[in-house]
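We emphasize that the prediction below concerns an isolated chain of 353 residues; any contacts that depend on oligomerization or on bound cofactors are therefore not represented. The input was used exactly as deposited, without trimming of termini.
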Amino acid sequence: MTITKKELTGKAQTVLGPIDVEELGITLPHEHFLLDMGVWFDPPKIASEKALAYQPITMENLGWVHYNEYKNLDNVQLLDEELAIKEAMLFKKEGGKTIVDVTNVNLSRDPAALVRISQVTGLNIIMGSGYYVGEAQGEDFDRKSEEEIAEEIVRDITVGVDDTGICSGIIGEVGGSWPLQDREKKSLRASARAQKLAGAPITLHTGRNEGSPLEMSQVLDDAGADMSHVAVGHLDREVYSLKSLLDLAKGGCYLQYDGFGDTVFYSLHLGVYDRPSDIQRIRQIMELIDKGYLNQILISHDVCLKTKLVAYGDGGYAHILRNIVPQMRARGVSAKEIHTILVENPKRFLQFH
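Result of the prediction step, given as a token string:
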């Protein structure tokens, strides 16, 4: 059965079907339950550490893995459905209602598992569509036209992924690198086309450079995307100057801080990048609020590694509600502003137009 754009307008689409946006409640707009990020796996080159690359994470090697996140294969794979359910229930226990799983076709998306997780936990789960970074694409992607890619994304949204009948509710995370690859420009233009056809929101995985968010946004804008329906992600690892943030904000997109809980620096194979503390993230959000951009702010954790889960010693999906909200209150962010960020902004963003 095909869902029409008219039927989706004004709704949000979960893996169990369209719902009224008032049912979304507290929402995490950028997370993962099950995925395989093997595209980023970078095993050590030296003999004494090679064994660590293929060991399951244990208390004995956890410290090494924390500082070498992408050098351990077990860490870049979330494959345990029962563990995903346990971790999701911690978010629900804190009052959370909706999680957007932005795992797409390149990251081992699992629609049936998301349905089961939603049914067991009672959470609304919204599933991603579209394509990740250029390194994850193969010749099959290169052979497709932008029109074909757009049609594929629209089918994910209106008919369902493959033959599952389970529908995506967001385009993304659409991947970008720095500098932006031709494959990624093609993916962005196709995503803009799909947005116009289906009315869906778009969420971006930006490259590791301060210029990437603006570059990706410009490609979408030039392709006719509705920028007020686009979330530019990973800003807390890419954009460090207030001027760059304000330039981006003026385009009307959502400004997504989805790295809450990340405090350790990145593995050097990804380059040399600053990684802010959670307090620095809060301070930058407060600056944006002061400049009048409260209604464009989204926050999340981007749980995509085992070391970000409670079971492996981190905050998991409940970290923002358990730890960040109290810190925001203590620093003067009002209850109304917090509600806007956690509830009202995701509700507007995820609503089909």
